[in-house]
Amino acid sequence: MNKPVNKKTGHRRWRAVVAVLRVALLALLLLAPAAVHAQRVLTLDSCRALALSNNKQLGIASMKQEMNESLKKSARAKYLPHLSAIGGYLWMSKEISLLNNDQKNELTNLGTNAAADLTNRISSVIQQLPAAAQAKFTADMTEFAGALDMAGTGIVNALRTDTRNLFGGAVMVTQPVYMGGAIVAANKIADINVEMAANALEAKRQGTIYSIDQVYWQVVSLRHKLDLAESYMALVRKLRDDVQKLVEHGVAIKGDYLSVGVRLNEAEMAVTQVSDGLALAKMLLCQLCGLPVDEPITLADETTADFDWAEAPAPLEARADVALANRPELKVLRNTVALSEQTTKVLRAGNLPQVLLTGGYAFSNPNTFNGFEKKFGGFWNIGVLVRIPIWNWGDVSHKVRASKVATAIANMELDDARQMVELQVNQSNFKLNEARKKLTMATANVAHADENLRMANLAFKEGTAQFTTVMEAQTAWQLAQTRKIDAEIGLHLAQSELDKALGTIQ
Question: Based on C-alpha coordinates, what's the Rg of the chain?
Answer without folding.
Answer: 50
